[in-house]
Amino acid sequence: MKIGILPLFNKGFIDNGAWCKSFLQTIDVIGVESVWQVEHPIVAEDYEQLYSYSDDGRAPFTADTIMPDPLEWLSFAAGCTNNVKLGTGVLLLPLHSPIIIAKRVATLDALSGGRVLLGVGIGWQKEEFAAVSVPYNERGRRFDEGIDAVRTLWRDDIATYDGKYYQFHRVHSDPKPANPNLVPLIIGGSTDVAARRAGRTGDGYFPHAISPDDFAARIETMKAAAKEFGRDPAKIELSVSPTSWKFGSTMDLGICRAYAQLGVTRLIISAYEAGGHEPADIERYVKRFQDDIVARL
Question: b/e map of 166-198 (b: 16 or more CB within 10 Å)?
């Protein structure tokens, strides 16, 4: 079982270079496989309540929540570490030009020695799409084209893509990713549509705030879609963050075991559950998770 970790998304921590460096250098040497960053370029003060992971449509943001640009933060992380992989959980691809994302991610992957895991999602906040002049109701189709366009630029020395939203003809995009199999694209989202997309095109699947029972249903949807498109579902890596479904469940062996029995190979824990923000607190928390949970799965 691989262990991923989310940092503290609070003022004074995630935006503090000294804390981030200490946090990153600690996890780099204690068996944590990957560190993950989320994305919201903006958060509207009065956003329409469309967040689907809560009963009231409100996201779990607090007054001191900060979400740095994920690729910029992970570039800093790459420079502080040697081993830990660098994940976005998730980058909201339809908000961006895939041409720019392809360049930025390939650069980070090349300089980090192939350590990037690009988690991508569709987004839910209408105000973000309005702010970047992207029609909200087109985000799914832009998402699918964006994935294809990014991979084309990574793969082909002379790249051509002709979609409805994105087009380029005989262009060069360098550097290429260091990963010879390209940067893994991990599909986020907990809906049937997201599960089908993961089966159709994902290297991995990482739903958010999902129970083991609901994840089991989505996995069946993902597998069916993979087979429909001639893909091997066993090659689609499954990741989940137990605490995103129920805070504190990281240390619940029964819950983690239920995810593992579904075929999950990466459990993503949160520094919020460490009980403190010092490197020693993080180290104790990870060690406890390794000994009390992972070793018993």
Answer: bebeeeebeebbbbeebbbbbbbbbeeebbbbb
With both helix axes pointing from N to C terminus, report the angle between 253-261 and 212-228 in degrees, rounded to the nearest 10: 10
Listed by start position, the domains of the chain span 1-32+247-297, 38-246
Mind listing the pLDDT tens digit for each residue in 224-239? 999 999 999 999 999 9
**159-162 and 167-171 strand pairing:** antiparallel
Q: Burial of 257 by CB count in 10 Å (0-12 exposed, 13-18 middle, 19+ buried)?
A: middle
* Calpha distance 235→20 (Å, rounded): 33
Q: What does CATH list as the number for 38-246?
A: 3.20.20.30
What mean pLDDT do residues 72-77 have? Answer: 98
Cα separation, 259 vs 4, whole angstroms: 15
On whether the pTM is more than 0.85, the answer is: yes
